[in-house]
Amino acid sequence: MATETPTAEQIDGEGKKAATQARILRAARSLFAARGYERTTIAAIASEAQVSRAAVFWHFGDKAKLFQEACRELLIPFFQEVGRSIDSVDPGERMLLLCSVYDEFVEKNRETIEIFVRWVMESPSLRESLQKQLFELHDQFARDMRSALAGALGDASQSSSMAAALVALLDGNLLLSFLDPDPESRRLRLEGLHAIIALVLGRQKRS
Predict the structure, then answer these.
(1) What is the dotted CATH code of the domain comprising 8-61?
(2) Of 131, 124, 143, 134, residue with least CA distance to 174
């Protein structure tokens, strides 16, 4: 059965739809960051995006779903960076790259991540809203680290616990970076994590 080729009108319509959604998401991210979730209204988002309230509801359903989509868009670059970093790379080097990608993503998106972390810690409703996406991201990263460790160590039985420990250190660094944003402290923490990875790999080479 032949697939119908979309008409120029359909293509143009999809382009306008995507542009409108992108404008709404930009407005939502800006207002959520500035005002918080509870004090941001659909009316304010619509005004900022220069669309009607009905358009916001039509594209995203409600404020909670719009918030989830705004958060998901923040995480997409991280998924993409992780995917690029693990292609055709030696397992040991892949582990260091994964740590660097994590650290660089946090540094580039520090203000937004800090806002999200604060909301998740302070608001049970937002924590429930974001929990699935955050854990999906965390679990994927842990799987990538576990796979890299298994390849480097040649021992899948040890990779799960070691990967969990390394990811926990990265998570700790993330929280510490908000409490102690000094660049030198951040550098030392990242160097220390790399040194731990080198010790793990070196121990395997000697055994």
Answers:
(1) 1.10.10.60
(2) 134
Note whether 159 and 153 are within 8 A (CB). Answer: yes
> Could you report the per-residue pLDDT of 64-103, keeping only the tens digit for each?
889 888 877 776 666 666 666 566 567 777 788 888 878 8
The answer to whether the beta carbons of residues 153 and 206 sit under 8 Å apart is no
Mean pLDDT by 10 residues, the chain (207 residues): 47 75 91 83 95 94 87 70 63 79 78 73 71 75 84 78 85 81 85 85 57
Reported pTM: 0.63
- Match 């070196």 to its residue by tokens: 202
Domain ranges of the chain: 8-61, 63-206
The two three-digit tokens of residue 135, written as one number = 């854990």
| Buried b or exposed e, range 127-155, using 16+ CB within 10 angstroms | eebbeeebeebeeebbebbbbbbbbbbee
Could you give the count of Cα atoms lying within 13 Å of 67 in the half-sphere of its Cβ?
Answer: 25
Could you please state the CATH topology (level 3) that the domain comprising 63-206 is classified under: Tetracycline Repressor; domain 2 (1.10.357)
Q: Mapping DSSP to helix (H, G, I), strand (E, B) and coil, where does residue 139 land?
A: helix
Q: What are the structure tokens assigned to 96, written together?
A: 């260091």
In contact, 107 and 131? CB cutoff 8 Å: no
